Amino acid sequence: MIRLAKTEDKERYYTMLSYCFNMGNASIENNVKNQVFPTDEIIVNEVNGEISSSVHVVPFMMHFDQKTYPMGGIAGVSSFPESRDHGGIKEILTYSLQYMKEKGMIFSALGPFSFEFYRKYGWEWGFVFQKLKLPIQDLAKTKKAHHYQSLSKKDDEIVNLFRKQYACKFNGSIDFSLSIRENRWQNFYQNFTHCYAAYDDSNQIEAIAFFRIENRTLICDELYFLSETGRQHMLHLFYTHRSQVDQVELLLPKDDNIRATLPNPRIQYWEWANMMFRVVCVKEALQAMQLKENNKGKLRLKVHDAQADWNNQIFELIIENNHLSVIELKKQSSYDFEMDIQRLSQLILGFIDGKEALQLELVTCKNVRKEPLFNKIFQKRPTMLWHMF
Q: Which of 40, 199, 288, 301 has a CA between 20 and 30 Å from the CA of residue 135?
């Protein structure tokens, strides 16, 4: 039986979570004693009077095309081994889509243990980050900011407002709630992560970075800036650590071409397939898109979504005055393009564009005359998801 969790499920839930994620017995006792148990966010499968599998749908607000929308973060997908291979997780994930729809969450994301596993239920690869590792001496010619200042939890509002200016440019990034920010500061304190701001001569913040030092490496997973000058000024702060570190490791969005600014682009560099993404409600997600070009026209999409029947239909997209409206049509209507929910999710997010989807034969075109409009609607946009859950 699929249902929401109850208070009496708490100990077995954390026991199951600990088993699946190798947290140890001490974590069970600590979580049962200290952790808030959000029963209205946790979906469980009850078998013979006991929960056997679960998923936590964490509510977030997600940046998408310069606005924010509700997103369901899928976390804590777990089950006891004796309950596996019986379809329990499939039932819970399918139920979670209906749950998210009722909560108004039009998007969803998750961190997969296996892309192939979650792809079966409609999630698809949506985020990439790049990592660079460069010698500290490569930053020798960066220029110094007017001044620098260490920031802490007392500066949370300043940090959050500046971060928003940067993060809102990336589809998929999370708009941090107060509780998320408080947890982050606590984690930063525990793992000795530093936060610094670079200021210009008008006392305006140019860049903010979170970084830590481990094994003579300065590791920066979050670097926010509004101009390249600001970033270069922050990189100079990193250079002042040359007595402490031999190299700098940066985590950046996929399309960041920082190597073009370095004296030697032959550095350690790699991309990592990160989180998965899913559209929960196609009509609402399409209507949330902000079109880049002023176009006019119509086209029809046939979407296949085995887990969410409300998406499993034909949608007519009407573009006029740079506004996109969507009409749901009967399944037997004619259409111009056909795709599964995984590919449509990538297109809506901006992870791939229309031209790329057609070239890779990820989308079936039934009407070549509509290809130019299709390509203008679905264009690549920057994507990034820093927050793990």
A: 199
Sign, Cα dihedral of 339, 340, 346, 348: positive
- The tokens of 381 are what? 């946009």
Backbone φ and ψ of 105, nearest 5°: -85, 105
CA torsion 141-146-152-158 (nearest 10°) is -120
Task: Tell me the pTM.
Answer: 0.94
CA distance 100 to 69: 12
* Angle at 69 (CA atoms; ends 63, 74), nearest 5 degrees: 90
Q: Which pLDDT tens digit goes with each residue over 246-267?
A: 999 999 999 899 999 999 999 9
Backbone angles phi, psi at 362, to 5 degrees: -85, -15
pLDDT tens, position by position, 176-199: 999 999 999 999 999 999 999 999
Rounded Cα distance between 333 and 176, Å, is 42
CB distance 205 to 199 below 8 Å: yes
Q: Are 51 and 2 in contact (CB under 8 A)?
A: no
Q: Nearest-CA neighbor of 230 among 261, 276, 254, 192?
A: 261
Short-list 24, 1, 10, 25, CA closest to 56: 10
Q: Which residues contact 275 (CB under 8 A, 6 or more apart)?
A: 109, 110, 111, 112, 126, 127, 172, 385
End-to-end Cα spacing for the chain: 26
Q: Which of 235, 289, 254, 198 is nearest to 386 (CA)?
A: 254
CA dihedral sign, ordered 46, 50, 52, 53: positive
